[in-house]
Specification:
11 strands; four-stranded antiparallel sheet; about 200 residues; endopeptidase fold (from Nostoc punctiforme); alpha+beta
């Protein structure tokens, strides 16, 4: 019986040590940009609210690629203004910008901002360029197709002019009307949220 307890104790200590080692070494994700072919390195990280994000480590567009991508967007969309620090980057995306951080050194790509949405809903509308009453600058707009398909998030920039600012995937950060977005972001309705 004593040997059984010793073995169990040794296994328990080994398991605790293994869990500690796993927590020390983050999961690295290595991918390749589909347009330009550079390597992107990210690490999975859990944010304070439990949201899993990919923290950027290395790999991004060079200046010529940023210029080319910016020209494409400006030539093909009715963009009101390219925001400061709005150059294309793979470091962060729309969900990270709208829900987590508007800092120019944001390094987090968030695929699912569900935990940010919880308890912060204000109201919903259909696909329209007009914001409903009661919306304020800084409120978050959730582009909603279905519960599992929420392709885009934006921040309200001007209620009077119905403008939002948002990051378009790895493209830039732009100010635009609600419906002036790439085809993949077109949705059935908008959800409006106010962070507490």
């Amino acid at each position: 019986m004593k040997n059984g307890r010793k073995i169990f104790s040794v296994l328990l200590v080994a398991f605790a040590l293994l869990v500690s080692i796993i927590n020390v070494y983050a999961v690295r994700i290595i991918s390749q940009d589909s347009t330009y072919g550079f390597t992107i390195v990210q690490e999975l990280e859990t944010l304070d609210n439990g949201t899993v994000a990919r923290k950027w480590i290395s790999g991004d567009y060079n200046d010529a690629q940023k210029k080319e991508l910016t020209k494409y967007v400006m030539d093909n969309y009715d963009i009101i203004q390219e925001l400061y620090a709005g150059q294309p980057t793979v470091k962060y995306n729309c969900h990270s910008y709208a829900w987590f951080s508007q800092e120019i050194n944001n390094l987090y790509w968030i695929d699912d901002p569900q935990k940010f949405r919880e308890g912060n809903w204000l109201k919903s509308t259909g696909w329209t360029d007009t914001m409903p009453s009661g919306i304020k600058i800084g409120d978050v707009v959730d582009y909603y197709i279905s519960e599992n398909n929420r392709p885009h998030s934006a921040l309200v920039s001007s209620v009077l002019l119905n403008w939002v600012s948002s990051k378009w995937g790895s493209l830039g950060l732009y100010m635009h009307t609600l419906t002036e977005v790439p085809a993949g972001y077109k949705c059935d309705q908008f959800g409006y949220y106010r962070m507490k």
